[in-house]
Every structure is written in structure tokens, then in C-alpha cells.
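Handout, section B. The chain below has 39 residues.
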Amino acid sequence: MPLLSKYEMGMDGSLSEYMWDKKGKDFVVVAVQGWGRWC
């Protein structure tokens, strides 16, 4: 089963990519920003 990914806008206007792992158990959040990156 491939990864499920969905893109949403953050409250600060940043674009975040939410990726689900194969087991669908854990949520991995990758922040994609033009201004910078946060972990």
C-alpha cells in the first residue's frame, strides 16, 4: 500500500505536507515553506 499524502495550508500561511506511513499508524508531518523550515 503506497503512502497517502495530503497538502494543507498552515495557520501561518505555510504549506504543509501530511504523509501517512504504510501502517497508517503514525502521522509524519513535513513542513514545506518558502520562508523557511521548522521541525
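Note. Residues 15 and 27 are 16 Å apart (CA to CA). Compare this with the example in section A.
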